[in-house]
Design brief:
Order of helices and strands: HHHHHHHHHHHHHHHHHHHHH
Strand content: under 5%
CATH architecture: Orthogonal Bundle
Distance between the termini: 25 Å
Structural class: mainly alpha
Bound molecules: aspartic acid
Helix content: over 70%
Radius of gyration: 22 Å
Largest sheet: none
Shape: globular
CATH superfamily: Sodium:dicarboxylate symporter
Length: 437
């Protein structure tokens, strides 16, 4: 019998997880059982992915860069990557603003619902504002300063320092490019070998993905708030999902198809396991190992490109987040009866683009940075309480868009530098079977 492809296995895991969660909330003792006995399995899955992320960035980035013959190639790659990332983010914000102005979800919130939501989520909203305060207080060049670590080991010790590790690895890679092969050949071989090992480990981790996502979703459903609030926020949530759907289902595949000639089916079959992991973990950083493996081995993007474009994308290219921030900001303004002028909306394009770049690739980060968009546009920050209840499911969806955008852009960049080929893996079933030599 033909084995099921990985994405189907993961989807089955998701359905089972949701069913277990729904079943658990039927009993008073159910959610606690899920939290005690099932949730830890999901946490282990995320932890193992995060564990592998830093070593993967270092090994693949150094190896990828060291294969470039000269620094000018790095500068071409860098300019194209950042340029395309910025374009897709601005496009995403524009789509978000168009949708929120047409649907006007904020107008569906009456005085009473607004007061109820504000009261119910006041504490959480205050906490998020507190977290955003630090970013707001920092000087204008602080993000630039933060790129440069003063100690390699300190930088490596915190997954939140991904950008610092990327900078260190690029710096190291440049050193290798500048030296002749006979002096640094062994170092190159070491990082190449390390990278191969890590990619193999990701294959092994992906064997457990159906179980990991089942556990994550079961816990999420068991812990979720009441459905009534979801209904009050239905139009807002639908606006965000519609925008993300357009990005994921139309904009990215169309861009990818137009510039690379590859089919929609090819793209989605290749990237879908990463999308499903992004959905279940709500973290582009935790998904990065899967995104890299899928893009390189199943979408045919050369390691030279994936190793550079994807880690940077996971940390700075968040189209789903920027689209959500635009919709959320205008939704809150509408709910408070504010009219936003065209200038204010253009201001949101700029701040949402910057805020999404500054958002960490972890759950809820987009909401923390939303505070900055709100305060720049003069929208009441207290409005955060209005959108709290549905933030997690929307976070899951926007993380899928973030990851899909990174993969699509990596294909565009690869095509532009002639590094897009045929996928290495053709027989996907065999690929995930560990071979014992
Ligand atoms: N969770 C998102 C990500 O990791 C960031 C966000 O909160 O929007 O991509």
């Amino acid at each position: 019998m033909k084995k099921l492809e990985l994405h189907w296995k993961i989807i089955i895991g998701m359905v089972v997880g949701v069913l277990v969660g729904v079943l658990s909330v039927q009993f008073e003792w159910g959610p606690q059982i899920v939290i005690d006995w099932i949730k830890p399995l999901g946490t282990i899955f995320i932890n193992v992915l995060k564990l592998i992320a830093m070593p993967l960035i270092i090994a693949s980035l150094i190896k990828g860069l060291s294969d470039l013959e000269d620094i000018s190639k790095l500068s071409v790659l860098g300019k194209r990557t950042i340029g395309i990332y910025l374009l897709t983010t601005v496009l995403a914000v524009t789509i978000g603003l168009t949708i929120v102005n047409v649907i006007q979800p904020g107008k569906t919130i009456n005085e009473e619902t607004r007061a109820q939501l504000e009261q119910a989520y006041q504490t959480e909203a205050d906490r998020t504002r507190g977290m955003a305060q630090e970013a707001q207080d920092a000087g204008p060049l602080q993000p630039l300063e933060d790129l440069f670590a003063e100690n390699v080991f300190v930088a490596l010790a915190d997954n939140g320092n991904m950008l610092q590790v990327i900078v260190i690895s690029i710096f190291f890679g440049i050193g290798i490019i500048l030296l002749p092969d006979k002096k640094v050949g062994t170092v190159k071989k070491f990082f190449d070998g390390l990278n191969e090992i890590i990619l193999k480990l990701i294959d092994l981790i992906m064997l457990t993905a159906p179980y990991g996502v089942a556990a994550l979703l079961a816990a999420l459903v068991a812990e979720s708030p009441s459905v009534d609030i979801f209904i009050a926020l239905l139009w807002y949530a639908l606006s965000v999902v519609l925008g993300l759907g357009i990005l994921i289902g139309v904009v990215y595949p169309l861009l990818m198809h137009t510039f690379t000639g590859k089919g929609f089916g090819f793209f989605f079959r290749g990237i879908s396991p990463a999308q499903l992991v992004a959905f279940s973990t709500s973290s582009s950083a935790a998904t990065l190992p899967v995104t890299m493996e899928r893009t390189e081995e199943h979408l045919g993007v050369d390691r030279e490109v994936t190793s550079f474009v994807l880690p940077i994308g996971a940390t700075i290219n968040m189209d789903g987040t920027s689209l959500y921030q635009a919709i959320a900001a205008v939704f809150i303004a509408q709910a408070f009866g504010m009219e936003l002028s065209l200038a204010a909306q253009l201001g949101i394009v700029v701040t949402a683009t910057l805020a999404s770049i500054g958002s960490a690739a972890v759950p809820s980060a987009g909401m923390v940075m939303l505070v900055i968009v709100l305060s720049q546009a003069g929208i009441p920050e207290a409005g955060l309480a209005l959108i709290f209840a549905v933030d997690r499911p929307l976070d899951m969806c926007r993380t899928v868009a973030n990851v899909t955008g990174d993969a699509a852009v990596s294909m565009l960049v690869a095509k532009s530098v002639n590094k897009l080929g045929d996928p290495k893996v053709k027989n996907w079933d065999d690929h995930y079977q560990p071979k014992i030599k």
